[in-house]
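This part of the workshop introduces the protein records we will be handling. An example says more than a description, so a record of this kind follows:
>
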Amino acid sequence: MIDNTDSNVRATVGDTVAIKEDRLEEVTSSDPSIASLENGKIVCHKAGRTNITRTDGTYVSHYFVLVSDKTSLSLSKTEYALEKGKNTTIKSKVTNASASEMSYSSSNKTVATVNSNGKILAKQKGMATITVKLGSILEKVTVTVKDNSLPKTSGLKESYSVSSGKELKIAYTMKDAGDSKVVATGGKSKFKVCEGLYEEIEVALIIKVTDGYVTIKGMEKGKATITIRVGPVTKKITITVK
């Protein structure tokens, strides 16, 4: 019997490999669970090695088949929100391939860049798409860069005065506040009753707080401090009630 080798076949699970069409029509697989014969083709089922034998009784030929698992790529996150100047690294899981085979690219390098290790650097406010490539597999990551500018208030004076029983609207302009809400606190002052004894009285009552103004009402004559806070930024103003 004459023995020949047709080919050494490398394939992945799910692949179908054509074999020669000739008089060697008796075809068998040493392990059909790995690769079987269907309609004259080798069909790969799971990872492993098998030998496809073809014969007509006189001649024998072989396909030595190595079946590997399919290459896969999964990302732990596909959306990132970063402040300008911050960085993060894309975390991924690779099957049947090396992470060194992956490549990264950014759709908008002025907003966010990415290096060969998947490290993202936020450059300026906006959105960018990071494409992660492994062979024919493509995954997308959306990066939103936020401006980390601190909120700013303008138009506030250091001190205001109001008559007892009257209301006063303290107006200002807010910038870069984002989702931060304006909070106003204070308006109380300690009044000395006697030596070692103090009583807290409400000098100015905060009635309303908006993104554009705070309304207060003079309650008792005296001075008190009101603190206007937007995110981490605070402004202190002195209120004198006459």
In short: The chain has no helices and 27 strands. The radius of gyration is 37 Å. The first strand starts at residue 2 and ends at 12. The mean pLDDT is 89.
